[in-house]
Amino acid sequence: MDWQDFDAALAALNSGLRMTLRTQFTSIWLPIQLGIIVAVAAAAVGIAAIVRKRVDLVSATMNWPPYLRLVVRAVMSHFGTIMFILLLSIVRASMRASMDRPRTYLLMVAIDLATAWVVINIAAGVIRNQFINRVVAVSAWTIAALSILRLLDPVLAGLDSVTLNIGGLRITPLVILKTSVLMVLTVWVAVAASNFLDRRLRGFSDLTPSIQVLLSKLIRSTLLAFAIIIVLSSVGIDLSVLAVFTGAVGVGLGFGLQKIVSNLVSGIILLADKSIKPGDVISVGEQFGWVTTMGARYTAVDTRDGREYLIPNEDFVTQRVVNWSYSNNLIRLEVKFGANYSSDPRKVQAAAIAAAAGVPRVLKQPPPICHLLAFGSSSVEYRLAFWIGDPGAGITAVRSNVMLALWDTLEREGVGLPKPGPQRVIYERAKADGDGEDLPPVR
User: pLDDT tens across 381-393, in order?
Assistant: First the structure.
């Protein structure tokens, strides 16, 4: 570290402060100006309170454009400060016009600081992200305040004088501050731009959902990469010195980040080959549901029971996945049932087909079909198959509706359903210590 430059910067800053204190704060004008500032501030607060009680800002700006409404509300939220600026400017102008060489340095500084605060906050009010809003407002006002007090150059020199050299990289507190603030702002701009482009892509009906998601991810990654490169270049960091860091990241990818990279690459593959896309009905292992979101690391599957499974993208590439709506949304469902031997099988088949066709979600084409499966010990076994075209609306519900319709139709047609057969009882005989007593039957 170069402590000589740091000492020189501190000496310059100390000299500036001494000059300001000696010329402005060692006279009778100091308490006068402070008193004026306090009195004007109290008057501004009172006026702002009265105006807020009598003006209904929400109703007055209800039909205004959104951003204009935000600006007006920002002005009203800082109305007290604006009144402070106006009143203090009037007092200062009156003093300079009526007195011989009055000292109004503190009044001028207070006016400039308050003006900078209002302007910066109103300008930052269009940023809806509260964190970014605060970062922009505080950073801009700090720079403005230091410039107004004529301390910006000494402070910058002091922050830039403490250096830490790592290889060919020169690190100072000023570089860290600039990098942090610029990184936050540029990343926010990149994310906002990617969100805007994502909304525009979703408006193109010619693009499939998977292509829309893939393009959105690529645009976001590209914008973020450009944002980082621009920030590092703007603060004077040579990107070639990051070769060691890049090598370390490569080693980390080879060891600890394998799963993350695998999921990321798997997600890109899934979006590129369109094997799975948002809205598909899939089952992976025991998880069955609808694809709602495809992220960089996982895919969200909604099971319609209040739970949402976050399945790693790698599982969709390495495991067997059933996509019920890969080529189309047609899904065949089956219901098995039995009927008494006294019922005509052809009548049972016709009644079952009519019951399924009467359910609203069951398709007419392909038509429902009923097959005779087997002759059971106490009933004739049948299988009713039918098709639906909206698996996203649920499968259990339509199967239940078909079974209820089947029950009503068979009962109306006089088809008897099998009843449970006689209960079988198994008797075990055992000897208990040779006394020959039989144990009770085991059911």
Answer: 999 999 988 776 7
